[in-house]
Amino acid sequence: MKSFFVSFEGPDGSGKSTVIQQMVTQIAPFLKVPYLVTREPGGSKIAEQIRQLILDPANDAMSAETEALLYAAARSQHMKETVIPALLEGKIVFSDRFVDSSLAYQGVGRDLGIKQVKQINDFATKGIAPDLTIFLDVKPEIGLARIAKQRSGQEDRLEQEKLLFHQKVYAGYQTVIKQYPERIQVIDANRLLTDVVDDCVKLIIKRLPKELLKD
Ligand code: TYD
Fold first, then answer.
1. Does the predicted model carry a pTM greater than 0.90?
2. Which pLDDT does position 151 carry in this prediction?
3. Is 5:131 a contact under the CB 8 Å cutoff?
4. Which residue in 39, 94, 138, 208 is a FRET match for 15, CA 20 to 30 A apart?
């Protein structure tokens, strides 16, 4: 059965969650099949529990390897319980973050290497990749400034990392984007929210198989 898998990526503070919410409202009337919105780390009961563990600011002793493996573990569970069943039912899946986050944050941000992190994730995902990935492009300085404004003092463990870490993550994303130029499409997210959402809607409609769209 035809299905379609879209992931959204970007630095912290790129506005992914808001963009996804508004995109879904706008795109829903055009879709012939049901859709599912999910997120990582999380998207299933067990994966949400792993999320708590990873993002808890108290867990500052966590090694980079443990962090990478926990993200992969959460992803494996998310695939098994949520993403794969939805794709098998012919749904369109929109995921707030997926493997590229691990490649950029753990592979480059934490210096584990993109290749190594990809290997553990291939094991976790059984090699299933999104059909389309939208990278919401904002410089890390701007993303962090947005977060500081929105939830100062309540940042999670990764958001609390220094600017240098987030600059490495951003550079990591640039490398990953170059590796997958067809799958990953970059949208300038340093603009009005409505413009960013419009561009996402247009791009997804262009890429969706015709069978999944209303006539
Ligand atoms: P996210 O849920 O997007 O953050 P929020 O909704 O609070 O803005 O992601 C949580 C954090 O986890 C974010 O800093 C990115 C990080 N992350 C990784 O480092 N590796 C991964 O594989 C994933 C999925 C997220």
1. yes
2. 83
3. yes
4. 208
